[in-house]
Amino acid sequence: MSSLPLHHPAGATEWHLPSKRRVGMSALIAGECAIFTIFVVAYVFYIGKSLTGPTPRQVLDIPIVGTICLLSSSLTIWRAERAIEEERIAWFTLWLAATIALAAVFLIKTILEWKELIYHNGLTISTNLFGTTFYSLVGLHASHVVVGLFLLSSTLVCSLFGWVDSRQSERFGVIALYWHFVDAVWIVVFTVVYLIGR
Amino acid sequence: MGDYSFPVSTPIEPSATASEVGTFLERLHGWVVTVDHKRLGILYILYSTFFLLVAGAEALLIRLQLAWPRNHMLSAQVYNRLFTMHGTTMVFLVGMPFLFGFANYIVPLQIGARDMAFPRLNAFSFWLTAFGGFLLYYSFLGGAGLYGMGNAPDVGWFAYAPLTARSFSPGHATDYWALALIVSGFGTLGTAINIVATVISLRCKGMTLMRMPLFTWLLLVVSMLTLVTITPLTAAQFMLLIDRYLGGHFFDTQAGGSSLIWVHFFWIFGHPEVYVLVLPAFAIANEIIPVFCRKAIFGYPAMVAASLAIMFVSLGVWAHHMFTVGMTSVSTAFFTLSTMLVGVPTGIKIFNWIATLWGGRIRFTTPMLFCIAFLFQFLIAGLTGIMLSVSPWDWQLHNSYFVIAHFHYVLVGAVVFCIFAAFYYWYPKATGRLMNETLGKWHFWLFLIGFHITFDTMHVLGLLGMPRSIYTYQPDRGWNLINMVVSIGGAIQGIAVLIFAYNFITSYWRGAIAGDDPWDAWTLEWATSSPPPSYNFEELPEVHSRRPLWDLKHPDDPDWEYEA
Amino acid sequence: MRLVPAKPLALFGGALACVLRTTTLLAQDRTPSTLVPESTPAHQIFDLSIFVVAITGGIFLVVGGLLAVALFRFRARVTDPAGEPAQIYGSTQIELAWTVIPVLIVVILFLTTARIIFAIEDAPKPKTTLDVTAIGHQFWWEFRYPQYGVVTANELHIPVSSATAPEATFLKLTSADVIHSFWVPQLAGKTDLIPNRVNSMWIDPEKPGLYVGQCAQFCGSQHALMLLRVYVDTPEQFSRWITAQQQLARQDPAVAAGRRVFETQACMNCHTIMGTAATGRFGPDLTHLMSRATLASGAINNTPANLREWIRSPETFKPGALMPAMQLNDEQLDEVTAYLETLQ
């Protein structure tokens, strides 16, 4: 038997495969999309079917500020990605902090909205179909924002300690991919809840 | 078999001293904290084998209860818990872990990698799945304790609303069902992500997607499908818990909700799930059949295309489980058509296997016997599936023993038979020893006879009007003799599985030494030692065709000259 | 409207059906078998199934035959030459053929099936029909006849439908609690009873007699004993039955004690007896309890001893049934049983 054959096609070609981290995060996002789809389907199916209680039109205000903040955070995190790739760590830290701040504003606005809905309008998860589907869907999204905020804040802390440089740019890119997903989901949720459903 | 140039590694000798091997506690600790894909694969397989025996015992109790009409050996409550747990266990604690366990063990070896993409996620996923199973079975200890079977779920493995609402299912039985499956569902999701990332990103040099072994291809397809299959169930289970504990109204008909959307969400999960369970069976057959008829698989590109077609089409057939809920005739017709269409790529696979056998030299070893039985049985199962896809006929057959016969024909006749084949085929790789062929043949023939006695006759029960999920039946309906026959077949299968268990355990110490490549096979896992060292390969290989070992064994006639 | 199978292979399917049919007929004369249809939807389904068996049987013989031939012809023999057999990697023509042919089979099968789907599901409602509303409960059936003002339980009476006097029965189906399914195989396929939703189905049985079935969607602990009895009556029998059902309950002074027990021991909270103060809706209507052959939705025969024991302890016959044992003493049991025995 001979050793490794020499006369074979494509002897010394490059061998590049996609990054396992990006593939893994994309797979996670695919699964998460399926979960969100089910909650969105339930929301859409139950539009107008509540037997009692406050309707979306009566109690929902369009969250313009929160939405602008959250969607802008996609821009800021993109700038942060560019910065870390180009080893501009100070700018990276600033853009990352901006992203966190914008996300925090979004979450605070959500909390204030819910406080108003619960105490002022009497809408809870058990009030009617609208309440059940609204809090589940928006809450599911908000929980994903919280997880993202945790990831971003941990990165910020690492960055402030000076532990971050361009070698972590791929890892940060994966976090950014997750964050873009969260923002994209918000576009869908916003459209379904505040535009179509009202 | 000859010697080939792949560097072969030296495992630790069985006679090594304790200081080299470690004390018992050290070895146990090694297994608990392991992130090695081979060890985790074995843990998954041992875990699912244990639950196979448990759920099998549950099935035998069910069949004992149904052997006579108006039998009151088991009360209605106990029986309802048994059939719920049997189904839930077999799908989530046996089927999925077995298949992901095999994937864990074999995929990195077949693609020439050292481990999975995320070894720690791998371990985390296994322990989540294990905890989910523990939680599900802990339910037997709740409530009234072992008497009356405690708080074990009793709502069917499909847990239809509104039966699962607090008002109709007080106590925690339903909660155990939902929570245990949510937890193990996250474990499943982790493994699926891992497999996708591993196959896409860790293939050895030269292994393009179209040069991967079909086993790996199919597990990639299964993992992608799992991502969008298990997650709808998780979502629906969260909704159920919100209804039960937070006063939600997702499935609350009193508040204008719909019990039907549970049925939709469940089957949006449930139908692709059965493809998640059966595609790995195809994966196993794709490896074993070529080796034991000494020919390459016929039509590799078509097999890949058919697998992808099945993955996509299977997402659009779910309402064939709902033909009787009162859908419009147009919806009924749509799902009838989509279900019939998914039979086309599936049928193509059978043709490809027959064409592989054609012109070969077939060796009837135990793994091959199981694969041959799989071919016949999967053909029949597919045809009864076509019968069920004819929706007017399904209006009679739905929820009857015909359906139970059909899906056991797939899940036992195809999936379990292929799992047994996989055991006999890869056991030598994992342990370094062959399983006993004589015992293997006893196992095969007894299991085959028992399987057919049970499940062939069970179709007739459905045609005679016997519905499923009943703890007893009236003696004047003409079902008595057939039920007895079905139960006897179950007992025979049980004996066969015991023979297998004996073989499985004793061969570890008494089996013939296997060597690296006992079957004269062609994929990369046979190029390293049996068992492989923890790092799999001393040097990562480079491949130029779909059968790298064929190329090495036949340098005058390598595969790459024939592959497109 | 019958589907006449044209394929010769239908002989195989037909022969199989005859064998099974004879077997079931020899067993007993009322059967939940799908192979002895006695109503148009059941006939249409059965005829379609023969066609399907013919096609799938043919596929099985061809593919299974090829498989068997391959295993026999190409088994490894001692006389085989050394080395490996010729490696065939694929063949575009063959693969194309065995893709196209199954697709054509699917098209034929689908078109045939679609015809029956529309025939059964979208059948127009004829002018003379009997309307019945079926409401599923855990674990019994409520049947209402809106055209006659009749409410009964568990045993359905409908008129026979002959060629000269066609009389279909249209059923509306819904549920008061969880999902159930109405299945009397000789008369039609099953249709689910779903809360907050009204489904419909129709049957036109062609022979008088008793047809049996049972609930076909798991609905809780006593799903197995939610049995169905459908009495198909001649027009005269049906007319007599419905008139009797329309009467108010018999008032027999001899059983006044029992009636008092019924009204004071909370029975009337769940049950209705027309013409009395009992108007409960949770349990079956008992106005004409003695016109039924069975109790507890087919679980037991309707005898005085069984009735007394059922009232004393439903757990005896149907553990998990939602009727509670009312802790009556022997005297009360005797009295209330005697009272119910008068409700013809």
Keywords for this entry:
heterotrimer, A: 198 residues, mainly alpha, Four Helix Bundle (Hemerythrin (Met), subunit A), 73% helix, elongated, disordered N terminus, C: 344 residues, alpha+beta, Helix Hairpins, Immunoglobulin-like, 3 domains, 5-stranded mixed β-sheet, 12 strands, 36% helix
Structural description of this entry:
Chain A is mainly α. Chain A has helices spanning 20-45, 56-59, 64-85, 89-120, 129-160, 169-196. Chain A has a domain at 89-198: Cytochrome c oxidase, subunit III, four-helix bundle (Four Helix Bundle (Hemerythrin (Met), subunit A)). Chain B has helices spanning 18-21, 24-32, 37-66, 76-110, 119-138, 173-201, 214-245, 260-293, 300-313, 329-357, 366-389, 391-397, 401-431, 437-463, 480-510, 548-553. In chain B, 64% of the residues are buried. In chain B, α3 packs antiparallel against α4 and α3 runs parallel beside α5. Chain B has one domain (38-561): Cytochrome C Oxidase, Chain A (Up-down Bundle). Chain B is built from 16 helices and no strands. Chain C folds into three domains: 10-121, Helix Hairpins; 129-246, Immunoglobulin-like (Sandwich); 253-341, Immunoglobulin-like, CATH 2.60.40.420. Chain C contains seven helices and twelve strands. Chain C has helices at residues 10-27, 40-73, 92-121, 235-246, 256-264, 304-312, 330-341, and strands at 129-137, 140-145, 150-153, 155-159, 168-175, 180-182, 191-193, 199-203, 209-214, 227-233, 294-295, 300-301. In chain C, α5 crosses α7 and α6 (304-312) packs across α7 (330-341). The radius of gyration of chain C is 27 Å and the shape is elongated. Chains in contact: A-B, B-C. At the B-C interface, α4, α8, α9, α10 and α11 of B face α1, α2, α3 and β9 of C.
Provide the β-strand percentage band of chain C.
15-25%
What is the overall silhouette of chain A? elongated
Within the CATH hierarchy, at the fold level, what is the topology of the largest domain in chain C?
Immunoglobulin-like
Strand order of the largest sheet of chain C: 3-2-1-5-8
Provide mean pLDDT of chain A, rounded: 92
Per CATH, the class of the domain at 89-198 in chain A reads: Mainly Alpha
- Fourth CATH level, the homologous superfamily of the domain at 89-198 in chain A: Cytochrome c oxidase, subunit III, four-helix bundle
Number of domains of chain C: 3
**Rg over CA atoms of chain C:** 27 Å
Named CATH architecture of the largest domain in chain C: Sandwich
Largest sheet of chain C: 5 strands, mixed
Low-pLDDT residue intervals, each spanning 5 or more residues of chain A: 1-8
- CATH superfamily of the largest domain in chain C, by name, is Cupredoxins -  blue copper proteins
